[in-house]
Amino acid sequence: MDVACCDSGGNKMNLTKRKFDCLVIGAGGGGLRAALQLSQADASVGVVSKVFPTRSHTVAAQGGINAALANVLPDNWHWHMYDTIKGSDYLGDQDAIEYMCRAASNTVIELEHSGVPFSRLENGRIYQRAFGGQSQNFGGDQAARTCAAADRTGHAILHTLYQQNIHARTHFFDEYFALDLVKDEEGYILGAVAIEIETGIPLLIEAKTTLIATGGAGQLFYNNTNARINTGDGMAMALRAGIPMEDMEFFQFHPTGIAGKGMLISEGVRGEGGYLVNGEGERFMERYAPHAKDLASRDVVSRSIAIELKEGRGCGPDKDHVLLKVDHLDADIIKKRLPGIRDLSMTFAGVDPINAPIPVCPTAHYTMGGIPTNRHGQVVVPEHQGAEEPVPGLYAAGECACVSVHGANRLGGNSLLDIVVFGRAAGNHIIEYLKENRYHRPIAEESVDYALSRLARWDKKGDGESVDSIKTDLKKTMDKYCGVFRQEDVLKEGVEKVLAIEERLQHARLKDHSKIFNTARIEALELENLMDLAVATVCSALERKESRGAHSRIDYPERDDKNWLKHSLYFKEGRRLEYKPVHIKPLTVDSFPPKPRVY
Amino acid sequence: MKFLIYRYNPETDAEPHMQEYELANVEPGMMLLNALERLKAQDETLSFRRSCGEGVCGSDGMNINGRNGLACITPLTVLKQPVELRPMPGLPVIRDLIVDMGQFFHQYRSVKPYLIRHDPDPEIEIKQSPEDRDKLDGLYECILCGCCTTSCPSFWWNPDLFRGPAALLQSARFLMDSRDQGTAERLDELEGPYRLFRCHTIMNCVDVCPKNLNPTSAIGNIKKLMVKHHI
Ligand SMILES: Cc1cc2nc3c(=O)[nH]c(=O)nc-3n(C[C@H](O)[C@H](O)[C@H](O)COP(=O)(O)OP(=O)(O)OC[C@H]3O[C@@H](n4cnc5c(N)ncnc54)[C@H](O)[C@@H]3O)c2cc1C
Ligand code: SF4
Ligand code: SF4
Ligand code: FES
After folding, report:
1. Which residue of A51, A467, A510 is in closest CB contact with B59?
2. pLDDT at A5 over 60
3. Is A298 a catalytic residue?
4. Whether the Cβ atoms of residue A522 and residue A555 lie closer than 8 Å to each other
5. DSSP-assigned letter for residue A4
6. How many CB atoms are located within 10 Å of the residue A25 CB?
7. Residue B113 CA: which ligand is closest?
8. How far apart are CA A59 and CA A106, in angstroms?
9. Of A18, A129, A298, A342, which one is the catalytic site residue?
10. Among B47, B52, B133, whose Cβ lies nearest the Cβ of A227?
11. Minimal Cα–Cα distance from A577 to chain B, Å?
């Protein structure tokens, strides 16, 4: 290792350097599952995370992880595949979905073997609950496919994966913030520049392969269920490296965030028998989804709530929320199966769900779009030889990636599955890649310069707007102009507003120029990332002139398979959009052609 | 609302000091973390960790009016003014409310916090009865916030030797897991006068745990297993 130096202006000649076979950026479920695969195969792997690994947002996942174990009701992976494709409103890639659903059972069993404290059935097997959009027999009766550790499944999985990585001696860089990828002229990705948050010292991590696993970008919106750290950093790093973002117009609004606060109330609550009522006390989902009712897929339920509110049938003095009723359930079931939800509800809504209903409202939740990858986790871009050419040395997995298994709408319980299945697959593919690519390539200096200039920009002193006020404006703008329902003139205005905010950001200044644990500087760098993604999201939304899954256009209310059965690709340069076909053909089984979607 | 907050930046301050802050427009339902974020909007240099904002990630443990807790689930209404905020005691301060958790995580990693199996894995789940699974409740939910360990006098005196309540709770989480086959090595690792036996049942840890876990009783259970192990 070279000697440490560097003010954040960065003299790159004596920049601190480390070398690994694989650099994993992100220590959520996706990054940790990949790292484990690599460490167990004796690859040298460095994991960078801007927070201590168990603080990653995976820890907040509640309801569970899908796998057709058939422990409670009959099930098989093919039904799961069908539900996922239908849930995606046919925008999901059917090869990747087949791969994920086939791999699900083994993946969950593997997690159990590594220690995840799943809840149990009388026969000692993993407890499974019903979740939205799940059916038996291709659209028949409700299925119970979501494997749960009470309502703390994300915590259980994240801690277990971290623990297994301790066991496997994975090398961690805790509280390091990745700034940008390092790329050479031939387009190889050679690692990343990060800063140690505690000291502010930059570090160059050279790697033969780099996996981005930085999670979602829920902080794009003011009302969201996400952690403060979900600022889409890895996606923005990819954008700046010339890689497009796929399907950014598809952002999931979860039907049940605590009204006015945002904390998530898991779909598991409805899976255990909870249901929604409007201001007139009506169980309104029966009207919108006569068959699946409250367990229709999320886009459908969120839209239904939004319509109820718009038509004046909300609850409370401002008629701005609906109620999630659970108080008819047995108190013991609530305590045993939903203890975390009960805590959240009591703390943030002042309501004990055993006695009274929880006020809820649709809330920004999940980034369906992201870095385009194939089912091996390789990042793929349109290049000389077609729409999906791998970027050498670069991988992505988890919420930051778009494989795409969620298409236009993700099913609950499929994201935890996505992160472990594709984290593992990426790990395996990297192991193969390393066999063919045994040496580090020389580092392209300009790429390091570029990353360091991002830091230097915030060293500028003087007067300027604060990061905080710009961030608040950006998020409120996204809520207002790019929410559950969208339309042309509103989106056009949204694009203008977002671009105006981007201009303001150029002139923002920090007041805190300390090197030591400078959280203000981290927030500034995060805001730049959100900024790039906000532009990607509104531009992609404006262009897509149809309604599909989470993207509902009032002016184009129907799905239009003839013109729009395709993925968007947004490029930062020139704010350009391209499109690529959906993979309609699965790996082995027959394709599920698009059909009208009813629940 | 009035606050008195511990400030220290080693780059510029010779000594830590307490700084007064005032927050106007406190709204009902606001948590301490929301207040800190608003204060930070006024004074960017005020530094603290935070992430989930809902008490599940363990980032924002701090000493609030003399007692450790998580800012994000502490309602402002329960706090006496001026609200005195300090970093969690017993660990080196990096800056303001941010402590160096290195020692804490070192102790955590030392208890082999992972499932140990010697048998080959079955093709399906390793079965576990609901009753056996219930034994993990109150143990597995720990979020590693450090509130307990940094309020434990035994840890203050011997942070390098005594594992501390959080790490011992994790040890118990695996000792109690019917699937775990590492009992002997776990107990051997805790031998001696310090690692486990420095706990004098002072119960500070139980008082402060924001997840309502009970490290003292977990430690008691390990001590019982230790006695059996010796016979
Ligand atoms: C409240 C809530 C409940 C949910 N419940 C469920 C559920 O029940 N079932 C389900 O399937 N899904 C659920 N989801 C979705 C699911 O939890 C997430 O999509 C998934 O956990 C994302 O995992 P990840 O590994 O991709 O990213 P994350 O867990 O978000 O991890 C991202 C990692 O990247 C690191 N990172 C980010 N940027 C940088 C940077 N610049 N430098 C260094 N490191 C960086 C972070 O430190 C972190 O370690 C839920 C989501 C929320 C918000
Ligand atoms: S009970 Fe034991 S571990 Fe808990 S505070 Fe007291 S001495 Fe520390
Ligand atoms: S036992 Fe409680 S106080 Fe201690 S680290 Fe775990 S959650 Fe925090
Ligand atoms: S911010 Fe996560 S526990 Fe408080």
Report:
1. A51
2. no
3. yes
4. no
5. P
6. 30
7. 3
8. 22
9. A298
10. B52
11. 33
* Tokens matching residue A71: 């422990």
Strand, helix or coil for residue B171: helix
Average pLDDT over all residues of chain A: 95
Query: In the predicted model, what is the mean pLDDT of residues A321-335?
Result: 94
What's the CA gap between A284 and A322, in Å, rounded?
10
| Sign of the C-alpha dihedral computed for residues A509, A514, A515 and A520 taken in this order | negative
Reference B222, options B198, B195, B196; nearest CA is B196
**DSSP of A66-98:** E----SSS---HHHHHHHHHHHTTT-S-HHHHH
What DSSP line would sit under A152-177, residue for residue? -HHHHHHHHHHHHHHHTT-EEEETEE
Distance separating alpha carbons of residues B164 and B144, to the nearest angstrom: 12
CA-closest candidate to residue A521, choices A5, A4, A6, A8: A8
Q: Give the Cα separation of A321 and A278 in Å (integer).
A: 8
pLDDT in tens, A193-236: 999 999 999 999 999 999 999 999 999 999 999 999 999 999 99
Q: What are A574's strand-pairing partners?
A: none
Q: How confident is the model at residue A445 (pLDDT cuts 50, 70, 90)?
A: confident
Nearest CA owner, ligand 1 atom 2? A61
Token pair belonging to A554: 């009032």
Computed from CA positions of residues A151, A365, A584, A139, in that sequence, does the dihedral angle turn out positive or negative?
positive
Whether the Cβ atoms of residue A264 and residue A365 lie closer than 8 Å to each other: yes
Per-residue pLDDT, A196? 98
Q: How far is CA B8 from the centre of its chain?
A: 22
Cα distances (angstroms) measured from residue A348 to each of A264, A312, B55? 11, 25, 11
| B199 touches ligand 2 (CB under 6 Å) | yes
Are the beta carbons of B179 and A115 closer than 8 angstroms?
yes
Tell me the three-class secondary structure of A32-43, residue by residue. Answer: HHHHHHHHHCCC
Average pLDDT over residues A494-518: 97
Cα four-point dihedral sign B173, B175, B176, B181: positive
A256 Cβ below 6 A of ligand 1: no
Task: Tell me the CA distances in angstroms from B19 to A30, A439, B46, B92, one per residue in order.
Answer: 41, 53, 10, 19
Task: Establish if A52 touches chain B: CB-CB under 8 angstroms.
Answer: yes
Q: What are B207-222's pLDDT values in tens digits?
A: 999 999 999 999 999 9
Fold of A252-366: Flavocytochrome C3; Chain A, domain 1 (3.90.700)
Burial of A20 (0-12, 13-18, 19+ CB in 10 A): buried
Sheet holding A146-147, edge to edge: A65-66, A146-147, A128-129
Burial class (CB in 10 A: 0-12, 13-18, 19+), B29: middle
Interface contacts (A, B; CB < 8 Å): 151
Cα(B212)–Cα(B141) distance, rounded to whole angstroms? 10
Cβ neighbours around A485 below 10 Å, total: 16
> Is residue A586 pLDDT above 70, yes or no?
yes
| B194 in reach of chain A (CB within 8 A) | no
Residue B38 at interface with chain A, using a CB cutoff of 8 Å: no
3-state secondary structure of A485: strand
In sequence order, what are the beta bridge partners of A181?
A192
> Both ends of chain A: CA-CA distance in Å?
58
DSSP state for residue A345 in the 8-state scheme: I
Cα–Cα distance measured from residue A568 to residue B195, given in angstroms and rounded to the nearest whole number: 57
| DSSP 8-state code for residue A257 | E
Inform me whether the pLDDT recorded for A285 exceeds 90: yes
A404 prior amide bond cis, ω within 30:
yes
pLDDT band at residue B28 under the 50/70/90 scheme: confident
pTM beyond cutoff 0.90: yes
Helices (H), chain B: 32-42, 102-110, 130-134, 153-157, 165-175, 183-189, 204-208, 215-230
In chain A, the percentage of residues whose pLDDT exceeds 70 is 98
| Domain map (residue ranges) of chain A | 252-366
